[in-house]
Amino acid sequence: MPIRALGRRHRKRIAQHLLSLPERDRYLRFGYAARDEQIQKYVDTLNFSRDEVLGIFNRKLQLIAVAHLAYEPTPQIKGRAAMAEFGVSVQSTARGRGYGRRLFERAALHARNRGIDTLFIHALSENGPMLAIARKAGAKVERDGSESEAWLRLPPDSVSSHVDEAIERHMAEADFQLKRHLRNFNAFIDGVAEVKTKLGKNSGKSAKQ
Ligand SMILES: CC(C)(COP(=O)(O)OP(=O)(O)OC[C@H]1O[C@@H](n2cnc3c(N)ncnc32)[C@H](O)[C@@H]1OP(=O)(O)O)[C@@H](O)C(=O)NCCC(=O)NCCS
């Protein structure tokens, strides 16, 4: 499933995805059991001009995973490495398929191409899957009781890292458009079938009259 960059027009779908998360997942994602109003506020204040929001759509074009790469407001603190923070959620029925890891890798690539040298993840220490993703990518994980912080140093950007990102972006757009056409085509076929059924019923009735 290709990863797509999300924009302002996706706010509603991002909210739907996050609001569908059960209490425990909200706790793991935000660090507290976020209420609906808090989630809505988070979505309403997402800064698409500054940050990168990534998503994965299934075949029915439902948003099943969302990642947020938050850049610190510019200018960054002098003398400190340029940093971005990563947060992610995958719909429970779509877990264990590598989507979380792929979103992380894509966010790291995006950050790297924007001159960021450290990716930061704040997670609860009990969050095995998130910490597994970070560790596997080579992040340094520091545990402080119930909370953990992971730091991933990113290599400098290169021509190939920019090409990789451009290709992924292009593939994701093509995939989304294909899914959209397929959905419209299926709706058209369903419509034709419905009309045929109705016509069949009507001709049956008139044959009896
Ligand atoms: C964290 C989350 C995004 C992972 O999504 P996912 O698509 O299932 O993740 P992936 O399939 O890419 O990988 C999960 C990894 O965790 C591992 N894992 C699963 N359960 C685990 C556990 N209890 N302890 C340790 N590792 C675990 C898997 O084996 C896999 O590692 P692998 O690729 O080496 O096999 C998802 O669980 C989620 O949305 N959780 C709720 C929100 C959240 O916790 N967000 C992160 C905080 S920012």
Explain what this protein looks like in three dimensions.
The protein is of the alpha+beta class. The protein has a single domain, classed as 3-Layer(aba) Sandwich (Aminopeptidase), CATH 3.40.630.30. 48% of the residues lie in helices and 22% in strands. The protein has helices spanning 11-19, 23-30, 36-44, 99-113, 128-136, 159-208; strands spanning 3-6, 52-57, 63-71, 83-90, 118-124, 140-144, 147-153. A seven-stranded mixed beta sheet has the order 1-2-3-4-5-7-6, with helices on both faces. Strand 4, helix 4 and strand 5 form a beta-alpha-beta unit. Helix 1 runs antiparallel to helix 3 (36-44) and helix 4 (99-113) packs across helix 6. The protein is elongated. The chain binds coenzyme A. Coenzyme A (COA) binds next to helix 2, strand 4, helix 4 and helix 5.
List the helices and strands and how they pair.
Layout: E1 3-6, H1 11-19, H2 23-30, H3 36-44, E2 52-57, E3 63-71, E4 83-90, H4 99-113, E5 118-124, H5 128-136, E6 140-144, E7 147-153, H6 159-208
Parallel strand pairs: 4-5
Antiparallel strand pairs: 1-2, 2-3, 3-4, 5-7, 6-7
